[in-house]
Amino acid sequence: MSVMKRVSMIFRAKANKALDKMEDPRETLDYSYQTQLELLQKVRRGVADVATSRKRVELQMNQLELSSNKLDKQARDALSAGREDLAREALSRKSGVQGQMSDLQVQYTSLQSEEEKLTSASQRLQAKVDAFRTKKETIKATYTAAEAQTRINEAFTGISEEMGDVGMAIQRAEDKTAQMQARAGAIDELMASGALDDVVSGPRDDIQAELDRMGASHDVDGELARMKAELGQGSAPRQLGPAGSADGQAAPAPAQAARPAEAGDGE
């Protein structure tokens, strides 16, 4: 097989596939029905034309018959008047008229037969068109129902092109959401570990960081010691006296309370 034949075959195959994909059976049926209606209209027009010609021939025959009857009367009147020559002329003309009538009769019979054939063909074609219209509507309804059922099934199963696009969009959205969640979690972990401090405050000095930590710990220890001193929780715990003095020494007793004790001792 030559290259051109292969190219031609491939082109025809692809064109046939594209046309088959684009073809809608309902549109094809409607077009066929319209074509049959046009053909039926042409047949009816042909019947009308033949009927018109037949009617014209019939009118001519009627006129010739009237003319023949007139010539026959003229011939009789001429014979009655003794004019045999005039009667002969009238009969001669009548004979010519009769010949024309015979020719028209043949044409009339032919046109009448043709009209009957076309009328019968028109009736048969009309019946065929009516039957095709009924079948066409049935096929269209069945195809529409099947198409709707197919789309419903594809929607349920998710294999249609539209549902496939929706599914892919949902999948992409879920993937992006998962990616953003993972990124947010990773950033939180990096911020908690301090790995991102270098990005914000520059390179990190571990020695300075340790010194800062020790200084912060010393400040905390000093603050804790000061608070203990204020609360009396130092190295020597402070005792509260009887009168509740803060320095821990007992308050001197009143003089009047001491004298009764001395008197009791003397006794």
- Report the portion of residues in β strands: under 5%
> Into which percent range does the helicity of residues fall?
over 70%
Distance between the termini: 156 Å
Q: Provide the gyration radius in Å.
A: 64 Å
CATH fold description of the domain at 25-151: Helix Hairpins
- Any low-confidence stretches, pLDDT <50, length ≥5? 237-267
CATH class value of the domain at 25-151: Mainly Alpha
Specify the CATH architecture of the domain at 25-151.
Orthogonal Bundle
| Overall strand count | 0
Structural class determined from secondary elements: mainly alpha
Following the backbone from N to C, one meets helices and strands in this order, namely HHHHHHH
Principal-axes geometry comes out as rod-shaped
What's the total helix number?
A: 7
User: Mean pLDDT score, rounded?
Assistant: 76
Main sheet overview: none
Provide structural commentary.
There is one protein chain. The chain has a domain at 25-151: Helix Hairpins. The chain is mostly helical. Residues 237-267 have low confidence and may be disordered. It is built from 7 helices and no strands.
Lay out the secondary structure.
Layout: H1 3-22, H2 25-80, H3 84-157, H4 161-193, H5 197-201, H6 206-231, H7 255-266
Helix pairs in contact: 2-3
